[in-house]
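Re: Re: token formats

Sure, here are both.
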Amino acid sequence: MSSTSRSRTGMSLLLAALALVGPVVPAATAAERDRPTGGRIAVLQGDRLYANEGDIAAPWVLQEEGVSDYDLFGDRIGVVKAGALLVKEGDLEPGWHTVNPDSVTDFQLEDDRIGYLDHGELWVVEGALDAEPVLQERDVRAFQLHGDRIGVLKNDGSLLVKEGDLGPGWEVINPDSVTDFQLSGDRIAFAEGAELWVKEGDLSADPVFQERDVRKFQLSGDRIGVLKADGSLLVKGGDLEPGWFTVNTASVTDFQLDYDRIAFTESGSLWAKEGPLDAELVHQEDGVSAFLLAGDRVAAVKDGALLVKAGDLGPGWHTAAPAGVTGFRLVLPPRASGLVSLADLKAIFGYVGDERLIEEGLPKLNEEMREGRIDNPARIAAFVATLRRESGFRYNAQEAGNPSNYRGRGYIQLTGVANYRGAGEHLGHDFVATPDDVATLEWSAPVARYYWTVARPNTNDYADALDMGGVSKNIGYANPAQEDPRRCADFKEALRHFNGGALPPGHINCNRR
């Protein structure tokens, strides 16, 4: 059994070797290379690695020859060539730095970290490309970097995970019987034979049994997908309790989750859906030997050609490389300018609910975020992580089951007569007399900004310090032992998104002090 993304955000889908057919990837001219940077696509043809960036039809730039493995993350590209690990950052032009000269067997790029295996030893470089590698563990069979977490599967079947810096601090997740694993957000999934277990939150949390007879699994956002031995594909969202939705009953050969999208192959036919789990399936292409989802992009290999499209799931394939493809990866384009868009929220969290309602409120929300200087990646990430859990980004949200006139309302779920009075005095509106106004399009966003910056004036400071525990303490809510880790996991995913695909340096604190 294997998870669908053991190690890499832009995972490799290596295909059966296909004969190269002429110069099928034309080189870019110098003028064409001056296009604005967007998402990247890398394609391997034999041992030649090409990449483009920006539009899916952008011209290709040869990166390196003699390549046996490769990875992309943010503006970094890494390749293994005759055992040497080379990494560069920035544009697609030359500029390789040799991380290890001759003995790398596997590697991964993640944020500003580079992890690689050298004769069963895991080494990690953090920061600049020329930083000193730090030995992490010996006798390692497989590993994954994810945010500030590192996981290793050792040759004896034990699974170890740690978080924070590169110093000691392993937590033994399972002592002896793991066959595969994946890290995603604050979740850790691992297989014991054909049984899938997942834990959430703190590294010491108890694992929760998920399913038996599992051939392949994947985590993405709050979703879990399993491909069972009988060919059925099951997916669920939310917590770790039961609640599987059967996407396909018996004939799936491969699948991938990417937030609110699900794609799978069935006898060479590629199908995909987006939105709620019970959304209608949309046929994508026949004769597909490999595929990949990344944001609003879909890529597929058909008869050795690489097809890519961007946008919705309707028609619109572009033939990026017409023949000879033996591997490919996608890297998401950077986020659009502005503060928060619906596309941002979907890219971070997947399915977000009533999109029309959310879009209706975003202009006013962005206006108030600018007013409250909630305008850098850390502040925006903390804010949206909070609003996701408070109101689901719905300006008209109201606390269910509370008959009080001053129950939780609006984006921030303002609660209690004292808070209603304080917001009214600051904003010049009598919310004590008109409490329902807190959950209106006119007032919900100003109230959220007031609570974040005036009622709790150091919330932006906590966000700047990557202290989500401090943010959560300021906001206040029920069941913090369960809720704090979830909000912190949301914060990390949002921060990665708004920070250009990589977490910033520094420790992220999830705990209240």
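Second one below.
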Amino acid sequence: MIKQHSKMYKAGKKWVVAIISATTISILGASAVHAATENPTTVPAVTTTQVAAANQTTIQPNSNANSAAQVNAGHLDGVAGDGQGNLVVTGWHASNEYQPGTKQFIIVLDANNKHELYRSQAQVVKRPDVQAAYPQAAIAEDGGFQATIPAQRLNSTNSYQVLSRFTTLNNGEPANGSSDYYFPVITSKAGCLDTFQVSGNKITVAGWHADDQAVNEPTHSIILYDRTKNREVARQQVANLTSKDVAQAGILMANAGRSRFTANFDLTPALVGDQLVIVSRYSTPNGANQASQYSDYWFNDRPLTISDKQAACLDQFTVDRANHQIIASGWHAADASAFMPNHYLILFDQTKNQEVDRQKAATISSQDVAQNGFGSIANANRSRFNARFNIKDSMLGDQLVLVSRYSDDPTSGEGHHADYWFNNTVNLNQKAAWLDKLSWDADKVDIAGWHADDNAVAYPYHFLILWDVDKNCEILRTQVNNVASPDIAHVHGDMLNADHARFSTQLTLPIQDSSDFIKVISRYSNSSNGEGAYSQVWIPNTALNIPAYDGKFIYDAQGNGHLAPTDTPEHVAALIAQCVRTFNPHSDLQRVRLAAQYVSGFSDYARYTMSGPYYSKPIGVFIKHEYSCAGSTRALGLVLNYLGYQYRHVNENLYTHQWCQLWMDGQIGWADGQVGEAGYGQHPIEG
């Protein structure tokens, strides 16, 4: 019996197991060869003896044969090319079926459908080793054979089976007393892809492809095929390399001993995101695209997807106030960098929707990126960047973002490219201002404060403007000189003039405007008269003669007007309470007095009446514009409730003056919504 054992051979990084016969005749085949079931698999072990083929086709029987012995065994020793487009099959077939005039035929079947592909009368090869193993067989020593098969006959299949037949008929058909032996199925092509990967800007390929058709189609091409787009990308003609490991592993194809190949393909942007496969093709010199003149092996089990992964982080994107620059630093790892190696940083103006600057920025070592979850991205270990952009006047007032780009264009960064848009922004339209002092005595107004503004670097003339809200016009303006403000720079350091933003001045207010509601405007302009292009702030935190209510807006401590609600008195009262709090009153009395003044302000825009459905209710004072002292008292009481106070309605439902009584600062006091005043103790009308 032939014993079998496993032998491992290396195909690239993979180990493949081949089943090896324990006889010394030949290797039965690799794991891709499957034994047929038409014949017994138990045969005695024989020792190979090298015997030259004789020019003999007629079988001579063994004179010591035992007709009672049951013998039908065989073995394929090998398949090889003869250099003339043919496969030469060698082996032996021992049988006890013999008739005078017996001949041996070798028949090749398509292993998939058992259709006959070719038959030829075999040339007898003397095999004394077989005779020694089967002394009782009628056909043993003359059972050795050699047959030539045109390789082109195997074009239509990728596996075939060799049948040895002893028959007396000249056409090789079965006859009385004929004997058939089916050898194991032979794969006519096999291959393994050891390497298929991206290396820099190349796709590297290495492996082997053994193919019986190589004897007739010797030109070997490696084809890169895009499975996603269903098209060929590129092909290279390659010269095969020695592959003794393949041949020694039991691969029976004709060129198994010289079937290795290597190839390199350019990695292009068009391949990003696509799945690729390798096709190995043996063809006639002029038949690389003619189906009948080539044999392909598709390595579909080892596809390669060209990744388009990328990741990035912007560690710093800030304004360098001292140098009027924008600093950008971070990292951008991208698979596309393998074939688009030129790195650019682009400063993009989101306000104007246009690029404002770009720099070619070399990437530097970033082992931390590679070691913290991004090691699978091509350039993760070299993806950091640093850059500085000069701030131009055209950028002022705008919001900027950074774009990191890998491109195949080394000159300008256009061409094919992969971009990463960072979410971080630099806003060059930042401004902030505050009045530390706004006071007037007689006709003199003292103003002091600060105004930090990015636009100040382009607008050097600083003006303060007094604006009459009541008359809706400018009263006067004056130019001021800024002084150092390190305290402002500490808080607003990203504003370009934050370290030089303070101002102070004194103005003479015309007497006719001294009682008007006046706001202060701080303006940076590119013109010496304060006109032209400018950036300004209506300084919000205070104003002169701030009204409580002007018939439409309720004003807070900063002079900001809030549209008075017109739906419910509760909404009006809640807004008044909110505005009272903006004054940051230091006592209950101050808080309650402010509330009374707001309610009195509404009374100024309402009609006094003692009749009608609303005059005694908060809705009359706040929304219907009619009131009485009862309505003002209830309206003020509603505001006091929103401020957290409980009150008593004095003289409620009596035909006399009415007001609120409540505790303030630990003592009893009063508040009058009609008059707009409050105090401790008794109401003056009671004294």
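The radius of gyration is 50 Å. The first strand starts at residue 4 and ends at 11.
- S.
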